Amino acid sequence: MLVYGDSRSGNCYKIQLLLSILGKQVDWEEVDILKGATQTPAFLQKNPNGKIPLLEMEDGRTLSESNAILNFLAEGSALIPRSSFDLAKMLQWQFFEQYSHEPYIAVARFINLYLGLPEERKAEYKAKQAGGHKALAVMEDQLSRTPFLTGSQLSLADISLYAYTHVAHEGGFDLTAYPAVNNWLKLVEDHKGYTPMKAG
């Protein structure tokens, strides 16, 4: 299998972190989104949405959307809860990540880290802060009650949300006000198989 990705992207790092924890290896092709690599005819044929990460199977089938790739690669592992309710809670957090967390924390990080916080996007950057802190407060509430997002064990919910949370400071988010989140970050980092985000 081959993954097209950008190692500085949280959505792509999710895949690297999962593979490391599972002890699996796939081929990795680094993609430069700033140079339009995801908008070429060849790439758009693989993923018409023109985004990474993208998983390509040996038979040519492709799978996009980071959390869908996580769920596919982790099938049968302890990272996916067995009970229907716990599974739904895991999915709840993955949807939360894409709708309530990523649009604020990841976008602010992109504007700052990838684009260098240009003047014409500073207002947008500042506007992302409130939504990002709201998401962090929701996580803080849960993590003050359970060590991981779905309970006492690491799941795909944690991998999905760890990716951008642990680099939230690169989007201007100060995590010192979230002690439970910081404790959770350390728990994830102490987990067997953990690998840090690569420089790219």
- Number of contiguous helices: 7
Strand order of the largest sheet: 2-1-3-4
User: Cα distance, first to last residue?
Assistant: 20 Å
Q: How does CATH name the architecture of the largest domain?
A: Up-down Bundle
Short recap of the structure:
This protein is an alpha+beta fold.
Give the helices and strands, then pairings.
Blueprint: E1 2-5, H1 10-22, E2 27-30, H2 41-46, E3 54-56, E4 62-64, H3 66-73, H4 84-114, H5 122-143, H6 156-165, H7 179-189
Parallel strand pairs: 1-2
Antiparallel strand pairs: 1-3, 3-4
Key structural traits:
Glutathione S-transferase Yfyf (Class Pi), Chain A, domain 2; 2 domains; 4-stranded mixed sheet; 7 helices
Your description of this structure?
The protein has 200 residues and is α+β, with helices and mostly antiparallel strands. The chain folds into 2 domains: 2-73, Glutaredoxin (3-Layer(aba) Sandwich); 84-189, Glutathione S-transferase Yfyf (Class Pi), Chain A, domain 2 (Up-down Bundle). It has 7 helices and 4 strands. The mean pLDDT is 96.
